[in-house]
C-alpha cells in the first residue's frame, strides 16, 4: 500500500473511460418500426439500497412482465440486458457511451452522472428513488475490531479508505469537517473500490473504512469491523435513485413507464414481504440475509419509496458544493436533472408514508417472519435462551438500526439503550448522570 495519499481522481477517471462492451448496442436506437428492442439496465447487486431497481426487480421479473404485455399489444419483441457493477461510476461511463439506458446509483454518483451526461452530449435525468435514509444512516465509518480509535478525531494522520465521488466519501468529508479535521490534509485518504477497502481494513493496511450500504453492516456482522461513526449523526438525507438517458426516455417513453411500474411493484413486494425479499436478495448476491434485512427490513435503515421527495432533492443540491470542491463536477443544474413527470405518468399512486422510528426486531432461526418490540428491554428478554438468527435494535440517538450483539449498550437506571458507535454512547452517557456502558451479555442479563 503506498505511503502517500493517492490522487483524487484515478479510480473514477478510469471507470469513466468509454467501455467497449457490445451489450445494449441496440438500446434506445431502434426506429419506430423495429420488431425487436433491447433495453440495457445497469445496477449494483451488492448496493442493496437499489434492489427495487436492480437485484430484487431482476429476480422478480416484473420489468420483463411489463414489457411482455407491451409486446403483445404492439407486436415488438423486448429483451432486457442486466449489467452488474460495484459502483455507480462505470454505469455512468456506459450511459454516456450510449450503452446503458437505465441505471441506479447513489446521490453523489447521480450528480456526477448528470454532469458527465451533459458534458459528453448524453444528458440524463433522475426519474425515481429506490431507498433513502433521511438522517444519513446508510453510510458508516468502521474500524478493525481491535482498533483503539474511539472517534473521528482519532483519525488524524491515519489511512482511511473510501470511494471518491461516492456518498460514503461525502459522509466522510462532512463528518471530518464537523470534527475539526481537514479532509485533505489531516488524513491519508485512499481511493478504493469497496471490496478492496474492506480487504485493506482486514489486512491492517488502512485504519478505517468509510463506505455505503451494505459494506459496513456486512463487515460488522462478520466480525471484521466495528462502527466508528454513524452517518446519521450528520442528520442529512442520503439516497439512491434511478437515472435514464434523456434520448432513450424521449424515444421510448413507454418502456421507461414500464420500468417505473415494475419498480413500484418491486417496492410493494419488499414492503409487504420484507423477509422473503431479503432472502431473495441474499441468494442473488451472496450477502448474508441478516445483513440485507438490517438495511431492507421492516424496520431497516433504508426506506423504500420511488417518490422524488422535496427533502431528497434539496439534499442533492447541498451535495453539489462538495463535489465541486473535489473537482469532480462543475455546476450541476439539479432542477433540470430531476424529472418527476415519468413517475407521475407511470405510477401515480400516492407516496408511501415517511419512515417512522424503528423498533427493535428479532429474527429467530427457522422463522419466515420477524417480531417487533416496543423497547430494547423487551427485545433482550426475548433473546435470552432463544435460537436467534439476528436481533436488531435502533440507536437511541439517531435511530439507525444495528445488530444488537454488535451495538454499544448503556444501562441508565432500569432502562437499557443501544448505540451504533462508542461516540454515540458517550454522548448519551454525558447527558444522563449515572448511566454507564455495559457489555451485550450484561445487557441481556440486566433485562432478564
UniProtKB/TrEMBL annotation:
Keyword flag Signal = yes
Q: Which InterPro entries match?
A: SsuA/THI5 (IPR015168)
Where does the record locate the signal sequence feature?
1-22
Q: Where is the SsuA/THI5-like domain?
A: 94-277
Q: Which UniProt keywords apply?
A: Signal
Is Signal tagged as a keyword? yes
UniProt protein name: NitT/TauT family transport system substrate-binding protein
Amino acid at each position: 500500500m503506498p505511503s502517500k495519499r493517492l490522487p483524487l481522481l484515478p479510480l473514477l477517471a478510469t471507470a469513466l473511460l468509454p467501455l467497449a462492451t457490445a451489450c445494449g448496442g441496440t438500446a434506445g436506437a431502434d426506429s419506430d418500426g423495429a420488431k425487436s428492442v433491447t433495453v440495457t439496465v445497469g445496477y449494483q447487486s451488492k448496493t442493496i439500497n437499489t434492489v427495487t431497481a436492480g437485484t430484487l426487480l431482476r429476480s422478480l421479473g416484473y420489468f420483463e412482465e411489463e414489457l411482455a404485455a407491451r409486446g403483445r399489444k404492439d407486436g415488438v419483441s423486448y429483451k432486457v440486458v442486466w449489467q452488474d457493477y460495484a459502483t455507480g461510476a462505470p454505469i455512468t461511463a456506459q450511459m454516456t457511451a450510449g450503452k446503458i439506458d437505465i441505471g441506479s446509483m447513489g446521490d453523489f454518483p447521480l450528480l456526477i452522472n448528470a454532469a458527465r451526461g451533459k458534458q459528453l452530449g448524453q444528458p440524463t435525468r433522475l426519474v425515481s428513488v429506490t431507498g433513502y435514509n433521511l438522517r444519513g444512516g446508510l453510510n458508516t465509518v468502521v474500524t478493525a475490531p481491535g482498533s483503539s480509535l474511539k472517534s473521528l478525531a482519532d483519525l488524524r494522520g491515519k489511512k482511511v479508505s473510501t470511494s471518491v465521488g461516492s456518498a460514503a466519501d461525502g459522509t466522510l468529508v462532512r463528518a471530518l469537517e464537523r470534527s475539526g479535521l481537514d479532509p485533505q490534509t489531516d488524513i491519508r485518504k485512499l481511493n478504493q473500490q469497496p471490496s478492496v477497502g474492506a480487504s485493506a481494513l482486514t489486512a491492517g493496511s488502512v485504519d478505517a473504512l468509510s463506505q455505503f450500504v451494505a459494506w459496513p453492516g456486512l463487515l460488522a456482522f462478520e466480525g471484521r469491523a466495528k462502527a466508528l461513526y454513524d452517518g446519521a449523526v450528520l442528520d442529512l438525507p442520503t439516497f439512491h435513485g434511478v437515472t435514464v438517458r434523456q434520448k432513450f426516455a424521449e424515444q421510448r417513453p413507454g418502456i421507461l413507464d414500464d420500468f417505473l411500474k415494475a419498480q413500484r411493484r418491486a417496492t410493494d413486494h419488499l414492503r409487504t414481504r420484507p423477509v422473503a425479499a431479503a432472502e431473495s436478495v441474499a441468494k442473488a448476491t451472496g450477502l448474508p440475509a441478516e445483513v440485507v434485512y438490517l438495511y431492507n427490513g421492516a424496520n431497516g435503515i433504508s426506506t423504500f419509496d420511488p417518490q422524488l421527495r422535496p427533502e431528497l432533492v434539496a439534499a442533492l443540491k447541498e451535495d453539489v458544493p462538495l463535489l465541486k470542491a473535489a473537482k469532480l463536477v462543475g455546476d450541476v443544474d439539479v432542477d433540470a436533472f430531476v424529472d418527476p413527470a415519468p413517475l407521475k405518468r407511470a405510477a401515480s399512486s400516492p407516496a408511501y408514508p415517511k419512515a417512522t422510528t424503528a423498533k427493535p426486531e428479532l429474527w429467530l432461526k427457522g422463522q419466515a417472519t420477524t417480531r417487533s418490540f416496543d423497547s430494547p428491554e423487551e427485545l433482550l428478554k426475548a433473546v435470552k435462551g432463544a435460537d436467534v438468527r439476528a436481533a436488531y435494535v435502533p440507536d437511541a440517538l439517531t435511530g439507525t438500526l444495528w445488530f444488537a450483539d454488535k451495538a454499544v449498550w448503556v444501562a441508565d437506571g432500569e432502562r437499557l439503550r443501544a448505540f451504533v458507535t462508542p461516540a454515540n454512547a458517550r454522548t448519551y452517557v454525558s447527558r444522563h448522570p449515572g448511566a454507564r456502558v455495559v457489555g451485550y451479555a450484561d445487557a441481556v442479563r440486566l433485562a432478564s
